[in-house]
Amino acid sequence: MDRNTIFPRSLRYLLAVAEYRSFTRAAEVLFVSQPTLSQQIKQLEELLDVQLLDRTGRAVRLTSAGEVYLQYAHRALGELEAGKRAIHELHDLSRGSLRLGMTPITDYLAIPLLDNFNASYPGITLSTLEMPQDDIKGALADGLVDIGIAFSSTLTTEEESEDINNTILCIETLNLAFGKGHPLAGQQGPLSKHALEQVPLIMFSTDYALRRHIDRYCIEHGISPRIEMVATSLSVIIEITRQCRLSTILPNTIACEQHGLKSISLLPELPRHTISLISRKDVSKSPACMAFEELANEFSHARCQMD
């Protein structure tokens, strides 16, 4: 018999015999037969290769080795009970942790979602790591994050994989965004590809999937964009766009939510993009991870209804 199946039960049996100094009384309290009780303790003694109980007198007593071992038995059972409580706390989400990988472009969706999750489950420690989208998939594969928020073209299948779960939260339209003082501010869309070539731009660096999708769009439609500045921070791109002569290409939801920004559609239209939750298929999801997914879907559904 596997010793891992013997120890927890036999420890409780040993504690009961030591307390009542009787196999008969201990068996009654534990609701087991006396032969079963005796056999379990005998197996424990055989595993330890030491006698724990002195059975020669009218009352059963601990040997010197038994007295020493009993101290550790108390501690072991205490730790087992603590572990059991910890597991229950994980399942009722009163404690635990969640590691989230996300791209800068998904901050606008992630930040209110993170606040909502924290308010709902304050006992869960939430760690966020901002990184390019390709790095999120690598971090998932390496076990560095539990779940990711990805941003990808609906015309590609980058997130479809035998190893990755992909749950779409919403679909975004990409438009040209600029400040209210920009020359295009009074113009009605859509903007032609030839007019786009005349607009100075600030864009994400090519490390980011959004930039690569836009570059692909430009190549497919023969557009030579005037990219005069690159950045890795969404907030920097937004502030430069708001205050300077440069424009950028952003999800329309971001542009609409930013004070001082306006947007205009492009012709031909940029590919629509999806915001998705991604996670590994070969890893069991923790209760915290499943709760985040459920909350994200509820949040996204409510947002779509408002839009």
Provide an overview of this structure.
The chain is α/β, with parallel strands linked by helices and 307 residues long. It folds into three domains: 3-91, Orthogonal Bundle (Arc Repressor Mutant, subunit A), CATH 1.10.10.10; 96-171 and 274-306, Periplasmic binding protein-like II (D-Maltodextrin-Binding Protein, domain 2, 3-Layer(aba) Sandwich); 174-271, D-Maltodextrin-Binding Protein, domain 2 (3-Layer(aba) Sandwich). It has eleven helices and 14 strands. The protein starts with a helix and ends with a helix.
What descriptors fit this protein?
rod-shaped; D-Maltodextrin-Binding Protein, domain 2; 47% helix; five-stranded mixed β-sheet; alpha/beta; three-stranded antiparallel β-sheet; disordered N terminus; 11 helices; Arc Repressor Mutant, subunit A; 307 residues
Question: Can you give me a brief rundown of this structure?
Answer:
With 307 residues, the protein is an alpha/beta fold. The protein has 3 domains: 89 residues, Winged helix-like DNA-binding domain superfamily/Winged helix DNA-binding domain (Arc Repressor Mutant, subunit A, Orthogonal Bundle); 109 residues, D-Maltodextrin-Binding Protein, domain 2, CATH 3.40.190; 98 residues, D-Maltodextrin-Binding Protein, domain 2 (3-Layer(aba) Sandwich).
